[in-house]
Design brief:
The protein is α+β, with helices and mostly antiparallel strands. The chain has a single domain, classed as Roll (Nuclear Transport Factor 2, Chain: A). Helices cover 38% and strands 21% of the residues. The chain is built from six helices and six strands, in the order H-H-H-H-E-E-H-H-E-E-E-E. Strands 2-1-6-5-4-3 form a six-stranded mixed sheet. The N terminus is likely disordered.
C-alpha cells in the first residue's frame, strides 16, 4: 500500500527516492516549501477570486483557461480572457463535493480555505500541482497559475 502511494506521488510530480541519486534528492524541494510557495500565491489569488476581480485573477491564470466537465469523457473547452469572469462565476457557484450534509459551493470552499500552508479539507498540493474543489493549479516557471476549472453540465 505504501509503495503504491509513493508511486502515485511520483507520477504527480513529487520527489521520488526510488532510483534517484542523493544529489537529485537534495535538489527536490520539500513538500513544506512547495506548500509555502502555493501559500504565497494563494492569498492574493483567493482575495481577488472572492472579490470577483477577474482582472487580478487573470494575472494569476494561464490563458486560455481550460474548462472540463466533471466526467473524464467530457470534452475540454478553452476559456478566453473575455469569458473568464463568467466562467469563474459558474465554477464558484457549483457544488465542491466537499459538503457533508449540505452543498458546499466552490466559493464557500475557497472562503473557508484561508491558510493553505497546512492541511485543509479538499486541498491537495503535490509537487507542482494543486487542487481545491473545481480549481486546479500548476507551478510553471516557478510561478503558480490557475490552469483548469471543472464545471458540471446542467
Amino acid at each position: 500500500m505504501i509503495r503504491a502511494l509513493a508511486a502515485a506521488a511520483c507520477l504527480l510530480g513529487a520527489a521520488c527516492s526510488v532510483g534517484s541519486s542523493s544529489a537529485d534528492a537534495r535538489q527536490a524541494p520539500p513538500v513544506a516549501a512547495v506548500a509555502e510557495s502555493f501559500a504565497a500565491f494563494w492569498q492574493p489569488f483567493r482575495t481577488a477570486l472572492l472579490a470577483g476581480d477577474a482582472g487580478q485573477v487573470a494575472t494569476r491564470t494561464r490563458l486560455p483557461l481550460e474548462e472540463r466537465g466533471i466526467l473524464p469523457d467530457e470534452p475540454a473547452r478553452r476559456v478566453a480572457r473575455a469569458e473568464l469572469d463568467s466562467a469563474l462565476k459558474r465554477v464558484l457557484a457549483q457544488d465542491s463535493g466537499m459538503g457533508r450534509r449540505t452543498i458546499l459551493t466552490n466559493r464557500d470552499l475557497v472562503a473557508q480555505t484561508a491558510d493553505v500552508s497546512r492541511a485543509a479539507p479538499g486541498l491537495q498540493v503535490i509537487g507542482d500541482s494543486a487542487r481545491l474543489g473545481g480549481l486546479e493549479f500548476a507551478r510553471e516557471r516557478r510561478r503558480w497559475r490557475l490552469i483548469r476549472i471543472y464545471i458540471a453540465e446542467d
